[in-house]
Each structure stands twice: as structure tokens, then as C-alpha cells.
Amino acid sequence: MNSIIKQSIEKSFTYQEYIALVKQLAEENSNSGLEKTEALANYTKLNDRRMKRWGKTIKISEYAQQKIVEFNRKMTWLIITESWCGDAAHVMPALNKIADLNANIDIKVVLRDENPELMDMFLTNGGRAIAKVIMIDDETGEVLNTYGPRPSEATSYVNRYKAKHGKLTPEFKEDLQHWYNKNKGQNIIEDVIEMLCELEPICQ
After folding, report:
1. The CATH number, out of the four listed (3.30.1330.60, 3.40.30.10, 3.40.640.10, 3.40.1010.10), of the domain defined by the range 3-199
2. Which InterPro entries does the entry mention (predicted)?
């Protein structure tokens, strides 16, 4: 296993520890990361509520559950995130729901600004976009795939808007939140099952 990945895993949080950290930061009117601002603290409060809500409400269909349960390869999903990241607050609870169904999948969480070398190994279009999931084979230490910062449909939506307007506006970001709320984590579940199917013959 790459030494940077190994060191990051050694100092990582569990998903439940990360949830507790976000809750604590929200109560302290603070945020993770090097930059501390009122806006980022407010996003952290919002994300604390979002993650709690998605933790209770995301549903996985029987078909999807069956495919997840059949996956038979021990993996660690190392998630790079920060408390203020809106995409992460939608994506991470769905990933945790999937991992809860299969003991072969272990979620570990690290903070982006505390792990710049790791982050720089997994850039998105040259940027430090989060949440970023690194899928690692526990037996070989090989990076099997990466996921994020957004599910596939949201990524297409963002790319189309950027191509037309050059950058994401506050109005667009609000529309994106509506998309997440309407989709209820289903695109994330579909994306991940597709990735698992590429690694194991579970989708025959």
C-alpha cells in the first residue's frame, strides 16, 4: 500500500466519529479545515442536520441490497472531506448505508486540509474537490477506484452549467441542493453498485 494512503488510514476517523465531530463543531459555531469563517461554520451546522436526516431517510431497494450483500471483497473506503462541504453531507450518509449492509466494506474518514499529500494524489480536474472516496483493496493495498466529489447525474448537471456559464452561481448551488433532496441518495447507490459490479461478478 502507498505510504501516504497507509498513514492517512492510520489517523482516520470512523464514520460515527466524523458525525460526532461535525455535531461538536456545529455546537461550537466552528468548522473543520484551515480556514475558519462564519459562512463555513453555518454550512457545518446545515450539514450536521443534513447528515442526520439522510441517515434516517435514505432507502436502499431490495435489488440494490442484494447486490451489495453479494459483494465479497474486503475493501476500505477512505473518504476525504471537510465539515462544511455540502456535497459530502449528501454523499457520505448514502455511502455509510451501503457499507452497513456489507461487513467487507470499511469506511474511514480523513480531513482534506490535514492531508494535503493524500488530497493531491486524487485531484478532480486539477482541483481539491471533496468528498473524494478512495476504494482500496485490503489484501493488496491497491487503489481499485475513486468516487466523487458528486454522483454521476449531479456531475453532468454541474459540468453542463459550467460549460454554459463559466462558474457555479449561488442560485445554481441552491438548484443542486434541490436535486439532492429530490434524488434521495439513489444516484449514489446506483453509481456505487455499478463500481462494485466492475470488481466482482455480482450483477449477472
Report:
1. 3.40.30.10
2. Thioredoxin-like_sf (IPR036249)
